[in-house]
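batch job 7 of whatever, protein = NAD-dependent epimerase/dehydratase family protein
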Amino acid sequence: MAVKSPLVVLLGASGFVGSAVLRELAARPGRVRAVSRRPAAVPDDARAEVEVLAVDLCEPGRLAEAVAGADVVIHAVAYIAGSTTWRVADGDSAAERVTVGLVRDLIEAVRRSDPPVHVVFTGAASQVGPADREVLDGTETDRPAGEYDRQKLAAERTLLAAHEQGLVRATSIRLPTVFGAGPRSTARDKGVVSLMVRRAVAGQDITMWHDGTVRRDLVYVDDVARALVAAADHVAELAGRAWLLGSGYGAPLGEVFTRVAELVAEETGKPPVQVVSVPPPAHAEAGDFQSVTIDSSAFRAVTGWRPQVPLDEALHRTVVHCVDAMEPS
């Protein structure tokens, strides 16, 4: 009798990051259950056996249904509200239910599994809060400033506490600024880089809340997906703590947006739009003006992961995707 391959349950499979993870998982043999509120798009050339489950995980009992029989769970659920995926108002109970509540539900659903279920949680590098240095390596003390980061940290701590109790084998991968799109993308990126790409394609100025010298560690979404799958393959070595993910390069946003304007001009044949500084809005946070570069050498040493898509190529893919999406069919 043939032994079944481990079942990987992907929560948030239709989202921006989750859909990229699904493409990565589908490209190799195995069993995958793709769970999301709306049916996830399975690649036509999938090698994996993919089960699609469309369900609202916040409904009672649905999380347990989603992870039944799981050997590995990749938690990529994101609370989405407004124009971005990460701005959360103080005291937002709906966001707390998704970000923290689903982690509690997950632990309750798998706590009696033997052996313990392996869990990979998608955290955020910004959970550390405003730091006193630009380069982060994971040794910093967490002092989250915004509600999104506080909730992410609460969820991460809840999961790692369950690991300490032996209820799961869990790790958290703190993601950098993730961006991008390409020919196989099925979900919209609501982050600032792709937002400014769409502005440029529409002929609007690219705007910054600073002088452009603020640096960000930008990683293409397909590289992030590869990292999360690598984490799932190495949970035994990664379990019990959080790990930072990043390229190791902090790109000045002024230079990034100027390059975006150039690439859009090349694709559309129109003059490049202007990159301008504007006053920050009232909801801007201290972290919006802080440069961040991430040293992910610890994660790389365990998993062997490296970014494969250079920044300029990732920007080009994103621009081409956005130009194609805005052209009349």
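notes: The mean pLDDT is 93.
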